[in-house]
Amino acid sequence: NAGVTQTPKFQVLKTGQSMTLQCAQDMNHEYMSWYRQDPGMGLRLIHYSVGAGITDQGEVPNGYNVSRSTTEDFPLRLLSAAPSQTSVYFCASSGEVSTEQFFGPGTRLTVL
Amino acid sequence: AQTVTQSQPEMSVQEAETVTLSCTYDTSESDYYLFWYKQPPSRQMILVIRQEAYKQQNATENRFSVNFQKAAKSFSLKISDSQLGDAAMYFCAYRSHNYGQNFVFGPGTRLSVLP
């Protein structure tokens, strides 16, 4: 049972490049989400999903796309990277409403 | 919309002493869940403790306990017998009882443990 996995752990992009951050969980959780963490701002929700085929925007969705074709995977796409997207990105999942979110190890993204 | 406030950006405590981290939240709901997460320098988010709003009894996990005051919308975390390994960022989080509702996180408190 690997829990929540994220790849890559580190990434450097140039402005305008696109890329996909991968997230997978093996706990059969319906709820998955993506956060970004910036210094002094805690965790801000980018996009979330309550099940396969269902996604919705969070607090800071601009510049990011998601899809949820399977229960296990929830990739985050940066369409055209900007320096403002330099951050640490966390993927998380949860099952029943009363349980906590399980977090992946995070991806540190730098956009030059 | 719900909000979570942590009014102490930084705290410090002597090893073996007790420290309390504050958290307040704003909601119109009566049924919800509250969490404290710890984020050490490794960056991994680790659940410390969980509280269901319908339970009056304060949750306890070993050296960690909460003081849940529902009427005051307060959810503080007490760490007893502080250890060097407790040094981390601590985040308070809220989740509605309604499935599909998102977690709302506070801005965090950075705890330093002094030897």
Based on the model shown, name its key terms:
heterodimer; A: 112 residues; mainly beta; globular; B: 115 residues; 6-stranded mixed β-sheet; 4-stranded antiparallel β-sheet
Structure summary:
The complex is a heterodimer of chains A (112) and B (115). Chain A is mainly beta.
Account of the protein in words:
The complex is a heterodimer of chains A (about 110) and B (about 120). By secondary structure, chain A is mainly beta. Chain A has no helices and 11 strands. In chain A, the strands form 2 sheets. In chain A, strands 2, 4, 5, 6, 9, 10 and 11 form a 7-stranded mixed sheet that branches. The mean pLDDT of chain A is about 95. In chain A, a hairpin with a 7-residue loop joins strand 9 (about 85-95) and strand 10 (about 100-105). Chain B is globular and about 45 Å long. Chain B is built from no helices and 12 strands. In chain B, strands 2, 5, 6, 10, 11 and 12 form a 6-stranded mixed sheet that branches. A 4-stranded antiparallel sheet of chain B has the order 3-9-8-7, with no helix packed on it. A two-stranded antiparallel sheet of chain B has the order 1-4. In chain B, a hairpin with a 6-residue loop joins strand 10 (about 90-95) and strand 11 (about 105). Chain B starts with a strand and ends with a strand. Chain B has strands at about 5, 10-15, 20, 25, 30-40, 45-50, 60, 65-70, 75-80, 90-95, 105, 110-115. Chain B is mainly β. Classes of the chains: A mainly beta (about 110), B mainly beta (about 120). The interface between A and B is medium-sized, with 21 and 25 residues.
